[in-house]
Amino acid sequence: MKRRLDTSEVSDVYFTGMTTPDIFAVLANPVRRRILELLLREPLTVNALVDAFRLNRPAVSEHLQVLRNAKLVKDSKRGRERYYSIEPARLSEVDEWIKPFAHYWRERIQSLENTLDEEDS
Question: pTM, whole model, 2 decimals?
Answer without folding.
Answer: 0.70
